[in-house]
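Render Protein RRNAD1 in 3D.
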Amino acid sequence: MATPLRRYSCDSAPQTVEWMSAIAEFLRPYKPLMDAHVVNFFKDRLWELVDEEWMECLRKESVEILLKLPSGFVRDYWPGSLQEFVLKLRSLAVHREPVSHPILHNLHMASLGTVIAQGMNSKKKHEVEILTGVISRIAGDYGAETIIDVGSGQGYLAQVLAFEYHFSVIAIDASLHHAAVTNSRAERIKKHYAARCAENQHLKVPKTVTCHVLSSESLTSFSTAVIPENRAEQCIEPSLVLAGLHACGDLSVNMLRAFIDCERVKALVSIGCCYNLLSEESCEKISASSGFPISSAAKLSSLILGKSMRDLACQSAERWRNLTQEIALQNFDVHAFRAAFQMLLEKHFPEVLKSSPSIGRQGKALRRQRFRRVLESHLVAEASDNFPSASKEQCVVEASKPVDTEEVEAVVGCCNHFEPTGRLGCGTLQDADFCEIWKDVLPFCELIGPFWSLRAALGPVVETYILLDRLLFLQEQSNSVEAVLVPIFDPILSPRNMAIIARKTDADSPRL
């Protein structure tokens, strides 16, 4: 078996640069694989992008093993080069399991009751309970009384900070609907807490602000103008904390820049998401305020991600590892049928492909809901040690089941009924020989699982590079800022679990 490779560190700027350089060097040769779209799997013969020996080895593996591969799992009989590839990925990806960091040590977390937790699923409740505890500790170190919740959504984080931790909270979101929901929920929660509080106790309710934070300058200006009620008639400059739970795309980056630029913002707690929505300076040729890259070292490395790689960074190895065999096989089947449908469009309706339509989105939300229910049931079952796992033999049998002609014809019949090509404005499916196309691609269907697994394994490393770019941006601010990258959520329940926590340093401020 291949020897495990080194682990990297990001405790200092030089160490972070070394880690990022290693990632950039490793990823460059695999750019074609990361840029590939699975919908073109058959059309572009994408399996040829992968080492033939690797594909021949992995096509014999069970679905269970393929789902573990993105998490760094290897078998000792695999080709040495494949083992080295997977182990190198594992060494380059940031650790996602919660660690014993001083910030999390003896952390006080409010237990959320049914009233304030109304509307939260188990994932959101898990995130809010932990993150509010972290924010409270960071704010307490500076004596900060005001939190700015950036990208507040429906106000779950803001309301817990206000009602449970008694902070003044300003909730910023671009959606008027979200602001209305936040205000409505806050009034209901206020009535509940008012009934429990002493008559003279003043309840703090989050203030909602609806605006598009399109730049760090706008967020900085807003933060500078904030004056808490209890400081309005005082001459004391209030300390602010910027917080964001899964602030999408460039919003997380604007938070970092505003933290640096606004003197009154003393601390930052940011958990980003939606890397696919990031603007990329070198790729899209826009201003220097792009969402990636933002550190000087990353700009010098000239590694261009592009939309496909940023999409890939959103993959979750932990969640795939915990999929059931049934759902995994269903996902691979969906990829196969969608790729075959791409062949049909290429052959019979090439003009449709030129318009780049969004195909296959119907039902995706339902699949995600089902996926989340399965994950949550797994977590509950694991806690009681009663979850029955499928055996390897079952996995192999299921993975090797061929799709027969009757199944294909049934799928075609279903497609005829719903007329998907009709929705695309290109006639009905009866005009195309879908069965003939399916017979042509059927021998290659078993390669989709291995291809997908190898490509997905690169996702955590791409995300690590994006996160390190943000951390390094803060570390490059000389000694005026201290920043850390810490996993704070369960990565299975909340895949985007890496928090960037930063504080401005002075003689009296505690260290992270």
